[in-house]
Design a protein that fits this description.
Elements (H helix, E strand, L loop, with lengths): L1 H26 L1 H4 L2 E4 L6 E8 L3 E10 L2 H4 L9 E11 L3 E15 L3 E5 L4 E3 L3 E11 L10 E6 L5 H31 L8
Antiparallel strand pairs: 1-9, 2-8, 3-6, 3-7, 3-9, 4-5, 4-8, 5-6
Length: 198
Amino acid sequence: MRSRKVSAITLTAVVGAALLIYGSMNLRDSNWEPVHHPYPRTGASSTSKFFLTSGGRFALEVSTPAKASDAELLHREQPDVTAQLGVVISGPGNFQANRQVLRFHNGGWTSDSNLFFPDSTFDLPSGGYYLFSVTSQSTPNLFISPRAILSFRRFEPVGPEFGFAIEQWIGGALVVAALVATALLRASRSDPPAPTSA
């Protein structure tokens, strides 16, 4: 009987730890935005190596600083930006994507920045190590600023991150339950035997 309880507690702890680790790794910033550096100048290249816990759809994003006059506008759509950016991504299972980005469009903004995106996205097949290389043959004037940041970020419907958070919470709860059950089991072993009547 006691061995069954020990096995159940062990299984609960293992499953809880697995969910906790998996959820935590999927929620790491590096799994959602693995590349973040200044936009390369004309003729310059940049290479980054990163690890993903899971695959998915990703998109390039260029963030440029907003002018003080722009920050006051409720809507500040801007014309498309012409560029010549070569992108090469290699990863697990001989995966490789080679693409030329010739245009970025203004797809959003924040209080202090304007956001530009190309029309296409990248589907990375699985988790694992990836090599990300970009070469700029012609850098637009708008992207020359040192504060113009090129990012490669996960581009998926809102929702998966909540699933990972729930997995993380369930995993933590199972680990705690296993610890409590272990403590109770040890306490029951240390209880003195009940006295017997003559």
